[in-house]
Amino acid sequence: MSTTVMGGSFAILSPKVKRFNTSLGGRMSINFTRRRPNLDGGRVSNKVPARFMGDDRSFTPPLRTPPKRLYNFSTMPLSVSPLIRFGTSTWTYEGWQGQVYQRQYAKSTFARECLGEYCQYQYQGEPLFRTVGNDATFYRPPTANQLRRYLNQIPEDFEMCFKVWEEITIPSYAKQPRYGTRAGQPNPRFLDAKLFNDLVLTPYREAKFEPHTGPFLFEFQRHGMSVDEFCSRLDHFFLQLPRDFRYSVEIRNPTLLDFSYLQMLARHGVAHVYNHWSHMPPLAEQHTRIRGFTSVFTVLRLLTPLKMSYEAAKKRAEPDTKIVEELPQMRRETVQLVRQAVSEGRHAYVLVNNRAEGNAPLTVEGLVGMLRG
């Protein structure tokens, strides 16, 4: 069984229907198997794309207790749909003091103590942020004690999206001083599933952080692997991962955006991260090229203007206190993708960086305004 939207409400199709709408980029067929519990209790179809070649392995997310109130998706504004979570790439920007942060923090404790106030920030009387990215975990996995400190500051329904440790995601070390003698060398731990299970996932289990863990973000910088090699190695890696967490893949090589990449992600219920980044195509074009969503959730990361380096975008945005330039196409295509995802009963995570327009909270407010409109 699957869903479609007709006149603003959900229509349940027969179990034999094997097509879903990809209005930003044509249509395609995917077989559906095995029902997945809807994390927010809504009466929405929640089938999982399973293996294309008859294998019924599919993603099973961590179960959460459904809320007492069931949401009416046919009348609820998309901006407050429980399927949508807006947040920023991180939360520790001192330029947001006087905007997001009203309390006075000591410089030495700001990063450790401001998360709670971030979660309380409101826009038009409602909490704006229901998720946040954690970029620091790209450089080292969090400890269980770090995760427990987060638990003391975040509300019950809040989720964090953690970048995966770079030891897992870089095929070779860049020629940078921080890598020392490893600079320029192949990374023997690239896509090491045992390392990921033992050193990355273990702290989340020890801290009992699973209910607050959003999709893990596997960020792959530009590399020289072919589509076949990359997809083959990633396919083997995801086969070895537990299915009680959610995973997403962000690529920086536009040439990887093809149907074999879609098939590989869909086999494992892994989401493609639609990233608005320097050398990637626009968001809608990414959707067209991979021909549809690959999981029961989707992730969008709005990072920099297109065709602008990270360094130039960082300098342009400083001191991160205002919108320096709106990006109308980025906003429009973000809203289109979120609307389509929600119309199909998918969860949508949208993470915004200051480097995109200058001030991530104001960009999020603009996107919410467009959804309400």
What does this structure look like?
The protein is α/β, with parallel strands linked by helices. The protein has one domain (3-372): TIM Barrel, CATH 3.20.20.410. The chain contains twelve helices and 16 strands. The strands form six sheets. It has a six-stranded parallel beta sheet with strand order 7-16-15-14-13-12. Strands 1-2 form a two-stranded antiparallel sheet. Helix 6 runs parallel beside helix 7 and helix 10 (328-343) packs across helix 12 (360-372). The radius of gyration is 20 Å and the shape is globular. It starts with a strand and ends with a helix.
Describe how the helices and strands are arranged.
Blueprint: E1 3-6, E2 9-12, E3 19-21, E4 27-29, E5 32-35, E6 47-49, E7 84-88, H1 110-113, H2 115-120, E8 122-123, E9 126-127, E10 131-134, H3 144-151, E11 159-162, H4 166-169, H5 193-206, E12 216-220, H6 227-239, E13 247-251, H7 259-268, E14 271-276, H8 283-290, E15 297-302, H9 310-317, H10 328-343, E16 347-352, H11 354-357, H12 360-372
Helix pairs in contact: 6-7, 10-12
Counted up, domains total 1
Fourth CATH level, the homologous superfamily: Protein of unknown function UPF0759
Biggest sheet architecture: 6 strands, parallel
Tell me what the CATH architecture is: Alpha-Beta Barrel
Percent of residues in helices comes to 25-40%
Number of helical segments with 4 or more residues: 12
Shape, principal axes of CA atoms: globular
